[in-house]
Amino acid sequence: MKLLVSCFLITISFLASAQSKKNDQPLEILFIAASHDYGPKPIEDFSYPIDKALAFKPDAVFGENLSPEDYDALDRHWNKEAIDKRLAYLTKIGYPLPKNPKAFIARQYKLLRKYPNYHQERMKLAHALFLTHDFGNASYQFYLLDKLRPVFGAEEVAAFTRILGPADSLKQVGFRRTNEYYNIFHPIAQTFKLEKIMPMDCQKYNTPWSAAWEKTDSLYKIFEKAIEADTNTADYRTYSRLINENNDLQRLLNKANRAGKSTEFLNTADWDKYTDFGNFYGNHYLFGLKGFPEEGVRDMLKYWTLRNEGMCQNMVDRAREIGAKRVVVGVGASHRELMVKLLKAMPGVTLYTLNEYRP
Q: CA torsion sign, 204 to 210 to 213 to 219?
């Protein structure tokens, strides 16, 4: 009996040690802040972020997507109405979802690993991924199919229509050629023949965040009207300086956009301050001014911080779970300042921001 207990304790100790080592596993991150919409005719050619990512040679690419499990666990999602419409569209087309979608998806990945040019099988995979709420990876498969469309024969065009609808109607399921995934992160993943875009988003705090935002927005409008009514106060001068600085930063952003350097600018301290002004109504720069909704902004910052902490933890945990050593992280640029700070403080993590990374 003592021997059994001893063996059991040794096993537990070994497993705990292995888990501890896994939690401390070194992880290098190339952090790329990007725009959710570069427009239909972007001036930028995206070689700046892509070339740096290719030199970095990541094992995985993480995007601002929810895992299917995290999506299903939500009581509310900010974009649920649009997502429900997309699901309804794909369901209405009528192509059946297999009885065991999880096993089917695993088989499709295995099959495409061996035969990447089985385009009809990729269509079936994209369909199953979307209907099982893996929207990030469905989008990646839509991207790959979109790039392959010029070589489709009549049979493949017919299959696409039968499974996903007319080829030019992918926008009905949220597919866009203007976003950061199509222009930056999907090309990176494709170059390294990565099967998936790893999810990292955290939306657990969406409900209190939305409530804080709505409250703050209404109070800020009252504050704005009141402070602009009297331009002779010290509070107005503080407010006016902030507005002028914000306008200066907007001009810098516009200049970068015209020069085809949008993504480079989105990875600067100037952008961090600009988005701080815009997303949080002036943030701490206006704290203390009469009538400013400081409590509401602090609530917004609280839930914003919790979301970003969740995103960082998801990414690091999932990277280590799959044994990744080097990963590219792609997020909307408003996350940059806080996520960079959080990731740099995490044990075992070495972080490179896009502009500071030198291959």
A: negative
Task: Return the amino acid letter for 307.
Answer: R
pLDDT at 18: 46
In this prediction the pTM is 0.92
Kindly report each contact of residues 217-223 with a partner whose C-beta sits within 8 Å and lies 24 or more positions away, as own/partner. 217/281, 219/293, 219/296, 220/281, 220/292, 220/293, 220/296, 222/291, 223/289, 223/291, 223/292, 223/293
* pLDDT tens digit sequence for 263-304: 999 999 999 999 999 999 999 999 999 999 999 999 999 999
**What's the N-to-C CA distance of the chain in angstroms?**
58
Q: Return the closest-CA partner of residue 103 out of 81, 84, 128, 123.
A: 128
327: β partners: 29, 60
14-37: pLDDT as tens digits: 544 445 556 779 999 999 999 999
The pLDDT of residue 17 is 47
Residue 326: closest CA among 301, 357, 305: 357
DSSP-based three-state secondary structure for 118: coil
Distance CA 10, CA 15 (A): 9
What CA–CA distance (Å, rounded) separates 254 from 248? 10
Question: What's the token pair of residue 320?
Answer: 């280590």
CB 228 within 8 A of CB 96: no
Q: Judge contact between 160 and 173, C-beta under 8 A.
A: no
At residue 1 the predicted structure's pLDDT band, cuts being 50, 70 and 90, is low
Amino acid identity, position 270: D
Residues 155-182: tens digit of each pLDDT: 999 999 999 999 788 999 999 999 999 9
Alpha helices in the chain (DSSP H): 2-23, 47-56, 68-72, 80-93, 101-114, 119-131, 135-148, 154-164, 180, 186-191, 206-227, 234-258, 262-265, 269-279, 294-321, 336-344
Cα(139)–Cα(151) distance, rounded to whole angstroms? 20
* Torsion angle of C-alpha atoms 120, 122, 125, 127, degrees rounded to 10: -70
| Residue linked to tokens 């794909």 | 90
